[in-house]
C-alpha cells in the first residue's frame, strides 16, 4: 500500500502525515473495561490500539504510539488472530478499533475470514472524529458504533493544539454522517465524546449547542473531565493545568439546560480512571506488543 487518501489530509502517499507504513502496526490489544458502559458491557470491549494517528494533539497521553509510532508491524494473519482471540477466546462485547483510519484496508482484510466462518462482533470505530465521510461510507461495515470526539468548535484552536485547522468542519460532518446513517447493527450507533480542555470549556458548550441545533438532543454524549497535561502540553498554558471544577460544571449544566438526557458524566478528578483500568484488566497473555497503558 503506497497510496493513501483515507483521512482528510489525503497525503497521496505512505508514509504520509501520520507516518503509517504499508503494514498494520498495533501497540497493544485486549479486553478494556474503561469505555462507556454500553460498550464495555459485562465482558469488556475488545480493544485494538493501532499505532500512528491522523492528528497531532499536543496533549496526547498516547504519544509513544500515536506520535512516535511505537508498536509492532503485523501480518494480516496475525491481525486476524487477534480479532479471533478477542471474539472466540475472550468473548469480548465488540471489536473496538482505536484510531483505525490509517489501516482500514488491512482491518477489513483481517476480519473477512472470521466473518466467513461466522465469528463476528459489532465494530466500534473509535476515533477523534477527524474522518472523511467518503472513507466512512466505503468502510461502513467497520462502524457499527461510531465513538467520535468533538474536541474543538474553533478552527484556530484545532490548528494550534492538533495541527488540523479543518477539524471542526470535518468532525461535525462525520458525526452528522453517523447520526443520519441507517442500518447500524449496534444498539448504540453513535456516542459523542466531549473532552473539556482547560481554558476552552466554552468550546465544549458550543459543540453541545451545535449537536442540539443541527442534529438532536437525543444523541448520547460522554462529557469527559479527565484531561491531564501531558506531552507537549505541559509547557503550553492553559493546557499545562487540569480543568477546574467550575469549567466542568459549566459543560454539564449546559448539557442539562440543552435537554441532553442520554450519556455520561465523570466524577470530577484530574486523573483518568480508565487508564488504570486498562492495565489492571489486561489479561497477562495479551497485549504484549508494548508494556504501557492508556487510551485514545
Structure write-up:
The protein has helices at 37-40, 63-66, 76-89, 104-116, 133-138, 155-162, 167-180, 201-215, 245-258, 273-280, and strands spanning 25-32, 45-50, 72-73, 95-98, 123-127, 145-149, 190-195, 221-224, 263-265. The chain is an alpha/beta fold and 296 residues long. A 9-stranded mixed sheet has the order 3-1-2-4-5-6-7-8-9, with helices on one face. Helix 8 (201-215) packs parallel to helix 9. The protein is globular. It starts with 24 loop residues before the first strand and ends in a 16-residue tail after the last helix.
Provide key terms for this protein.
single chain, 296 residues, alpha/beta, 10 helices, 15% strand
Mean pLDDT: 89
DSSP summary: helix tally: 10
Q: Kindly report the oligomeric state of this protein.
A: single chain
Task: Give the SSE order as H and E letters.
Answer: EHEHEHEHEHEHHEHEHEH
The portion of residues forming beta strands comes to 5-15%
What's the arrangement of strands in the largest beta sheet?
A: 3-1-2-4-5-6-7-8-9
| Helix share bin | 25-40%
Major beta sheet summary = 9 strands, mixed
Low-confidence stretches: 270-296
What gross morphology would you assign?
A: globular
How far is the N terminus from the C terminus?
Answer: 25 Å
State Rg: 18 Å
Could you tell me the number of beta strands? 9
**What would you call the structural class?**
alpha/beta
Amino acid at each position: 500500500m503506497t497510496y493513501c487518501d483515507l483521512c482528510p489530509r489525503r497525503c497521496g502517499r505512505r508514509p504520509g502525515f501520520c507516518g503509517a507504513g504499508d503494514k498494520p502496526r498495533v501497540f497493544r490489544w485486549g479486553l478494556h473495561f474503561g469505555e462507556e458502559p454500553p460498550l464495555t458491557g459485562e465482558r469488556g470491549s475488545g480493544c485494538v490500539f493501532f499505532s500512528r494517528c491522523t492528528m497531532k494533539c499536543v496533549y496526547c497521553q498516547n504519544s509513544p504510539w500515536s506520535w512516535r509510532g511505537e508498536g509492532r508491524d503485523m501480518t494480516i494473519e496475525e491481525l486476524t488472530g487477534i480479532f479471533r482471540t478477542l471474539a472466540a477466546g475472550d468473548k469480548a462485547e465488540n471489536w473496538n478499533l482505536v484510531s483505525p483510519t490509517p489501516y482500514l484496508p488491512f482491518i477489513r482484510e483481517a476480519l473477512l475470514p472470521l466473518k466467513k466462518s461466522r465469528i463476528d462482533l459489532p465494530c466500534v470505530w473509535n476515533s477523534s472524529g477527524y474522518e472523511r465521510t467518503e472513507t466512512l461510507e466505503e468502510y461502513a461495515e467497520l462502524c457499527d458504533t461510531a465513538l467520535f470526539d468533538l474536541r474543538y468548535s474553533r478552527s484556530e484552536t484545532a490548528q494550534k493544539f492538533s495541527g488540523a485547522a479543518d477539524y471542526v468542519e470535518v468532525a461535525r460532518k462525520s458525526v452528522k454522517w453517523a447520526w443520519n446513517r441507517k442500518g447500524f447493527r449496534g444498539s448504540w450507533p453513535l456516542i459523542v465524546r466531549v473532552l473539556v480542555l482547560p481554558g476552552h470549556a466554552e468550546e465544549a458548550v458550543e459543540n453541545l449547542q451545535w449537536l442540539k441545533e443541527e442534529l438532536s438532543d437525543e444523541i448520547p454524549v460522554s462529557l469527559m473531565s479527565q484531561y491531564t497535561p501531558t506531552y507537549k502540553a505541559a509547557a503550553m498554558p492553559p493546557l499545562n493545568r487540569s480543568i477546574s471544577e467550575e469549567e466542568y460544571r459549566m459543560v454539564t449544566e449546559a448539557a442539562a439546560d440543552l435537554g441532553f438526557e442520554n450519556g455520561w458524566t465523570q466524577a470530577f478528578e484530574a486523573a483518568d480512571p480508565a487508564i488504570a483500568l486498562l492495565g489492571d484488566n489486561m489479561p497477562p497473555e495479551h497485549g504484549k506488543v508494548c508494556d504501557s497503558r492508556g487510551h485514545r
